[in-house]
Design a protein that fits this description.
About 20% of the residues lie in helices and about 40% in strands. It is α+β, with helices and mostly antiparallel strands. Strands 1-5-4-3-2 form a five-stranded antiparallel β-sheet, sandwiched between helices. The radius of gyration is 13 Å and the shape is globular.
Length: about 100
């Protein structure tokens, strides 16, 4: 299993169409998480999506939509990564 360092979990700038992510996702995970700043709980959704890069490669991208701050985070994994294992890896980092 390929594990990404937390530094590779980056915030996506701009507007993301969550419905399009949901349609293209091979795996969707929904949960509630506690905000570290205000201790309130809010929804998050995680999408595993195969994306083509500018270099012509296909990668597994894991998107985290954190509704509490209206933020989207993404991290890329090699194509041969199991989507479920990638989601687990990212959530372990996001929850810490």
């Amino acid at each position: 299993m390929y594990f990404v360092p937390i530094s590779e979990l980056r915030k996506v700038e701009g507007i993301i169409d969550v419905e399009k992510l949901r349609e293209r996702a091979v795996l969707v995970f929904k949960d509630w998480a506690k905000c570290h700043e205000c201790d309130e709980y809010d929804r998050l959704e995680v999408f595993a999506v195969y994306e083509n890069t500018d270099e012509g490669e296909t990668k597994l991208c894991i998107y985290i939509v954190w509704y509490h701050t209206s933020s989207v985070y993404v991290v890329e994994y090699p194509l041969n990564t199991d989507p479920l294992e990638a989601v687990k890896d990212v959530l372990d980092k996001f929850y810490d």
